[in-house]
Every structure is written in C-alpha cells, then in structure tokens.
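Schema walk-through. Below, the input block comes first and the output block second. Nothing else is stored per chain. Lengths vary across the set, and this one has 157 residues.
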Amino acid sequence: MSTDPADLTNLRDIVLPQPVSYWPPAPGWWILAALLLAGLALLVARAVVRHRHDAYRRQALRELAALPSPLDAAGAQSLAAILKRTALVAFPRAETARLTGKEWLRFLDQSGKMQAFETGPAARLPEMALGAQVAGDDKAIRAAARDWIRRHRAMGW
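--- output ---
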C-alpha cells in the first residue's frame, strides 16, 4: 500500500448497504392493519347482530312454507296469524295490535312498501280467514306474505 492517494492500489470495492427489510413494517402499516382489523370486527359484529335480529323473519318464513296448499279457512287464519305475530315483533305493539281489516292491510302495504294487500291479490285474506270461499290466487297471496316478511323495515333498522 502506498501513501499516495492517487495510487490505484489503494482502490477498494464499493460496500453496498444491506437490502431494506420488509419486516418489521413501518408504524404506518401497523396503524393501517389495526384500522382494517377494527373495521372487519365491526362488520362481523354488525352481521351477527343483524342475523340474530332477523331470526323472527326466518321463523315466519318457515311457518309460511309449512302451510297447506291450497289455502283453506284454517290456512288463511294461520297465514294472518303469522303476519300479525311478525308485525308484533317488528313494530310497537300499540301500533299494530289494534289493527284489523282495511287498516291492517294498509299497514302491511305501507310497512312493506308494496301494493299487494290493500288493492292487490292478498286483499281477500281477511275474508278467507273468516271462512268465506273466495276465488283467489293462493300462490299470489303466499308470495305477497313472503315478500312482506322479507321486505318490511322493523323499527330501528
């Protein structure tokens, strides 16, 4: 080795730094991961609460599917009872328990945002429940009830 700084024997290879490690991540990535996990936990919790809250709907749909076909007076009474019980769970008792006849049908249409009960195919349901032989489309009445059970918006949701 010479003491002359311009001597080529003094040259050494360039030392490269270590490659940047991907682990541990920077604090910003930890914060982002924590926020994503918190958001995911909130979504799962909301889905669980919603699933539990809609248990009455699933039960009503099972009872509706178990009704005999075609609907006779007893079947129509059972269908009306299923709708009433469903409404009593979803809406305040003071609002729904007293409703009968046209008011009841209007409530079903308004709460389900539909036109199947007051003027549609299920308008004859109260008469059928009272035992009157009404020529009506059994499938359309069941479909209206099924749609209402699925579509109505319960209080607070």
